[in-house]
Amino acid sequence: MRILLTTAAFLMVFAATAGAQGKFSGYMFGDYYYNFARDAATPSANNASTGAAPGGTAYQAFQFRRIYLAYDNDISEKFMSRFRLEADQGTDTLLASKHITTYVKDAFLQWKGIFGSSNLIFGIQPTPTFDASEAAWGYRSIEKTIMDLRGIVSSRDLGVSLKGKLTENGMFNYWVMIGNGAGTSTIESDKYKRYYAQVSVKPTSSFWAMINFDYQDRAQITDPNPPHSKVDDATSTLSGFVNYTEGKLNAGAEGFLQSTGNGYNDGTALATKTGIGLSLWGSYALEADKAVVLRYDYFDPNDDSKTAAYGDIRNYVIVGFSWKPDKNVSVIPNILYETYEKPTTATKDINASVTGRITLYYVFI
Per the CATH hierarchy, to which homologous superfamily does domain 2-12+25-363 belong? Predict the structure, then answer.
């Protein structure tokens, strides 16, 4: 947190003294939450990749889940840059983490119209996979999109991308990227890369759809089972989303299928790990400053019934009410409800996780 404030002060002084034509932006969101129900016998149900807030039954806390500070600068008609910091509680639970951590979320240079209507971007930047679906969902302050929440693909990567129009009217667009595949880490540890591709279509202002594919190349691994041969360990992900907005209604769906070669070891042999997810969301504006929000996620991290990991499906339900007392401030009471399939190795069912929250979102710059 101290790093964020120090850097912010430096950037503001720099912008003022250098006469930069840039713009600062920043927002925060956090909550007060109370856990109405938890299954104490299953701590894995409370890890960072679930919708369950940290802590056991009756645990309560105030928390900041995200603080953003960004500086965008139009260097010229052809070039723009962005530097963005994020401060949050990371992937640790509140019980284990003692400090809010700060890291570089974005640091990229964009070359506008490098050819035709295409832009070239280099640096730490958003990945194509769910950048659009997060915007369509519209309530990141309540929850991440399903692929972000479950750690399917990172929201950021260090690399180079090209994006632009496939048709002159902008109905069809593309986005391709090559990155380290290490998220926001700026240090690459191997020669292998992640490759992303996206095609989107927006025939009207109300309808938006796209399909994504990415491939994470990795070094071969040694099979821990005899005869201990070298096997592939690459991951491929196919995903897509649709969204429809008309008047007071916004509704959408996002799904993915992810396959990791030899990604699961059942103790005798390696097997392909296949994860499946589907998210359905909707919001309806009761008034200009009030809306109801609903979402349902289905997530199966390993759908192979032949492995011991079978029985790990999670169902996640979000119900919220958004009130905006100001255009830059939102107060959102919400309920998080997550259920867990009984694992094949378990002797009893896993109780559902239920959390009540009051979320506060505000733009401070």
Answer: Porin (2.40.160.10)
